[in-house]
Design goal:
Length: 606
């Protein structure tokens, strides 16, 4: 189509050049001051127009075009050439002859025809210009569409800068098992011939599975840094657009670009954004399915010996399409779990390396106080501790800064609310009840760290515990001790104040969930070794469960839950009644000092 548009443009330009006025006298004459014939003759009679021209249309015709220049002595507003046309009477002819007008017949075209020709030329020129404009649009639109299409389908991710990638395995802490599992990828990228000689084939894809913030992206970048190869990083959502087919085109562009840079690593973050199982009942997912199909085809289409290894990250592997996880695509799944105690200590050492730590700070103890924290959480913890020290105008970061940062991350910023003495007394007894139950009915492996009645976030007070070690499972005795500790706040209110408040709402909910799980999921009831709930398949990736028991079995299970809670509540009441003096002592100390350490509570209870 373009060649026809170019030909049309050439023809139209040639016409425009040919039709453009050349500035000849005839044309200039057509552009003079046109007046009515009677006005022209009147000026001739007054002597203001002399020595002009009379151009007859043809021999014997009385229709003529007259033109003349004003006399130099005439005071006329329009000094240019005067032109008039019309039928001349014999008297008019005699007047013009007396004024020495030259008469022309035939040979030269009358001036009357010149305006018509100029008009036709103007119409033709306008037509040519319109044609040029239309032709330019016809030529520009396909080019714009092509450029816009290329812009929408181009690779939108990030390519590591030219030069060495600074990220190494030393920058990744707390996931030693994952590093060990993918370390052979580095060796393959460095020496692919070693594996080719034995006929070994490296996985085309490695899926990193784990909770958010555990370092999946950092781990993939470290592999590229160790191997010294380019690193392509793109998010699953980058493939999705409002235009159908754009996602699939971007996938093809990504792998085509990666092939030119091989050996390299392609990293797709949040793979579940485009890799969800097909045919799951969602509406309007044609674009997502086309993008997924493009990824499946692309991973089948390149040879593993080219040196392109695809890393992907997700925290919802159960919703991924089965075709993605089959051998030949994502052959291997590497689990990047939350760090254990040793891992948290290593991560803290990495992120506190740039901080001015007080010599008394024990990172092992800080790690013990942060169970369930991811690598990103620990990095935030170190930064918040440094900010807190700076706000206090101190040059070093001490343990109190880490405690403040942990509490801020977990519960929110400290709030100095104005409360009545009765409210403070209720909160003090509530938190003292929790603390005493940990002291006198201790949950194994859990240490009382701190008790406070200072509000944070939605909590009016809090009792903090520190595990001695990471826990992989819980015994029945530990769970019962946890129930009694949760009930300690409500029971203390009832014993000391003679009334109960809504402050135990969170404790009641947590205790009910534990008791229900003990009966319905973990078989810790007279019903025995039976699970009465199962995970909802359609809610993959969540903790939602549905009950499978019904009728009499369901009723018996609910009775066992209530009986379990009643028994532990009675035991909690017995313990705190016997320890009423210690309860009053700890509550009074909290009202006085607002915050007590675990050691101080133990001394008060001795």
């Amino acid at each position: 189509m373009n060649k026809y548009v170019f030909a049309s443009l050439a023809v139209l330009i040639a016409l425009a050049v040919w039709l453009t006025p050349s500035g000849s006298p005839a044309v200039r004459a057509a552009d003079g001051h046109r007046v009515a014939l009677f006005e022209f003759l009147a000026e001739v009679q007054n002597g203001k127009l002399v020595r002009g021209t009379v151009a007859y249309a043809s021999g014997g015709s009385d229709y003529a075009t007259v033109s003349a220049q004003p006399s130099p002595s005439a005071e006329i507003a329009a000094p240019e050439l005067w032109i008039a046309e019309g039928k001349l009477t014999p008297d008019d002819v005699r007047l013009l002859r007396s004024a020495h007008f030259d008469e022309q017949i035939g040979g030269q075209q009358p001036a009357a025809a010149q305006p018509r020709r100029a008009l036709l030329r103007e119409i033709a020129l306008n037509s040519v210009y319109i044609g040029l404009f239309v032709a330019a649009i016809l030529l520009a639109v396909p080019l714009l569409q092509k450029n816009m299409g290329a812009q929408h389908t181009q690779f939108t991710g990030a390519l590591s800068k030219t030069g060495p990638n600074p990220t190494r395995f030393d920058h990744v802490a707390g996931c030693d098992e994952a590093k060990q599992e993918i370390s052979e990828v580095v060796e393959y990228l460095k020496s692919p011939g070693k594996f080719a000689r034995t006929g070994a084939r490296m996985p085309k894809g490695i899926l990193l599975v784990g909770p958010p913030g555990t370092g999946k992206t950092l781990l993939a970048r470290a592999v590229a840094g160790e191997a010294g190869v380019p690193f392509f990083s793109v998010s699953g959502s980058d493939f999705m657009e409002m235009f159908v087919g754009v996602g699939a085109a971007r996938v093809r562009t990504l792998f085509k670009t990666a092939a030119k840079k091989s050996p390299c690593i392609v990293f797709i973050d949040e793979l579940d954004a485009i890799g969800q199982q097909r045919g799951s009942g969602r509406q309007g997912n044609d674009e997502r399915e086309q993008t997924l199909n493009a990824i499946l085809v692309a991973m089948d289409g390149f040879d593993a010996h080219l040196g392109i290894i695809v890393f992907a990250a997700t925290n919802r592997p159960e919703i991924l399409d089965k075709a993605l996880l089959r051998p030949g695509r994502f052959d291997r799944q590497v689990h990047v779990n939350l760090p254990d105690l040793d891992g948290r200590e290593q991560i803290l050492r990495v992120h506190t390396g740039r901080l001015s730590l007080d010599h008394a700070v024990d990172l092992r103890e800080v790690a013990k106080a942060t169970p369930g924290f991811s690598g990103a959480d620990l990095a935030n913890l170190a930064n918040e501790a440094a900010l807190h020290a700076a706000r206090k105008n101190r040059d070093t970061v001490d343990r109190a800064d880490f405690d403040e940062a942990r509490e801020k991350i977990s519960w929110g910023r400290e709030q100095r609310r104005v409360m009545t003495l009765q409210d403070r007394k209720t909160i003090a007894y509530h938190e003292a009840g929790h603390a005493l139950m940990q002291v006198f009915s201790a949950e194994e492996g859990l240490r009382l760290h701190k008790v406070t009645i200072i509000p944070r976030g939605q909590s009016l007070g809090s009792t903090h515990f520190t595990p001695e070690r990471d826990r992989l499972n819980y015994s029945e005795a530990q769970l019962l001790a946890r129930l009694r500790c949760l009930m300690g706040g409500r029971v203390a209110e009832e014993i000391a104040l003679g009334q109960i408040t809504s402050g135990a709402a969170g404790d009641i909910e947590m205790a009910s969930n534990i008791a229900r799980s003990m009966v319905f999921e973990w078989g810790m009831s007279p019903l025995g070794f039976v699970a009465l709930t199962q995970r909802e398949a359609q809610m993959a990736g969540s903790n939602a469960r549905q009950t499978v028991a019904a009728g009499e079995t369901m009723a018996r299970a609910e009775e066992h839950v209530l009986a379990l809670l009643r028994d532990q509540y009675a035991e909690t009441r017995r313990i705190l009644t016997e320890r009423r003096p210690q309860l009053d002592t700890v509550a009074a100390a909290l009202l006085d000092r607002e915050t007590l350490s675990g050691e101080e509570v133990i001394r008060l209870c001795a």
